[in-house]
Amino acid sequence: FDSSVGRGDFITRIGVGQVIKGWDEGVTTMKVGEKATLDITSDYAYGERGFTGHIPPRADLIFDVELKHVE
């Protein structure tokens, strides 16, 4: 379990490979102000390799997100 609550907003570019595929695909369907739960299977996350020290191989991930701003 991890939480970014209290760490401030997560700012990134979507659709250019800066985040996992599940984020790229999930966030692009959202509207500004919308809250969503992204239930991401391992093949759209870190897959067989995992993320050493943080996420084991083949882990499905769940994110509660709010889209605050789009440029």
UniProtKB/TrEMBL annotation:
<dbReference type="GO" id="GO:0005737">
    <property type="term" value="C:cytoplasm"/>
</dbReference>
<keyword id="KW-0413">Isomerase</keyword>
<dbReference type="Pfam" id="PF00254">
    <property type="entry name" value="FKBP_C"/>
</dbReference>
<dbReference type="InterPro" id="IPR001179">
    <property type="entry name" value="PPIase_FKBP_dom"/>
</dbReference>
<protein>
    <recommendedName>
        <fullName>peptidylprolyl isomerase</fullName>
        <ecNumber>5.2.1.8</ecNumber>
    </recommendedName>
</protein>
<dbReference type="GO" id="GO:0003755">
    <property type="term" value="F:peptidyl-prolyl cis-trans isomerase activity"/>
</dbReference>
<dbReference type="InterPro" id="IPR050689">
    <property type="entry name" value="FKBP-type_PPIase"/>
</dbReference>
<keyword id="KW-0697">Rotamase</keyword>
<comment type="similarity">
    <text>Belongs to the FKBP-type PPIase family. FKBP1 subfamily.</text>
</comment>
<feature type="domain" description="PPIase FKBP-type">
    <location>
        <begin position="1"/>
        <end position="71"/>
    </location>
</feature>
<dbReference type="InterPro" id="IPR046357">
    <property type="entry name" value="PPIase_dom_sf"/>
</dbReference>
